[in-house]
Amino acid sequence: xxxxxxxxxxxxxxxxxxxxxxxxxxxxxxxxxxxxxxxxxxxxxxxxxxxxxxxxxxxxxxxxxxxxxxxxxxxxxxxxxxxxxxxxxxxxxxxxxxxxxxxxxxxxxxxxxxxxxxxxxxxxxxxxxxxxxxxxxxxxxxxxxxxxxxxxxxxxxxxxxxxxxxxxxxxxxxxxx
Length: 177
What we know:
It is built from eight helices and no strands. By secondary structure, it is mainly alpha-helical. It has one domain. The chain is globular. It starts with a helix and ends in a 6-residue tail after the last helix. The model has no long low-confidence stretch (mean pLDDT about 85).
């Protein structure tokens, strides 16, 4: 696939994500789309590893095509790439999500608001981290990326997090001709 097609799809996904995120604050059920994205990402991981994270994730695409314009593009600190931190963040976010879904079960507007609040909050944090470091630095501690990392059946392959897609595409341009 040509890099121009990859970039075009990425921009489309990023803009769709922003539109849906804003629209979800006005139309409650749209927020359930984000729950669907999480589920699809994990299912894809069982068959294709980090395909979701690196090429489809709407938040990742937002980082690739919008945050990159204002990112300092500094390396994400190695000390923050540790498994303990990944699991602590995943446990905290999952606990908050599960607790709030359980107490709001049956009220789909409230459940959708739980997902919307979580997605909005983590998108803001991801944007701040992406501005300070490389655009996709959030991916190193993303709860879904952590789940996907361990759900992947491609255990023998290195499941690389692409922190800067422009750099990655430039280094691997021969693969995308």
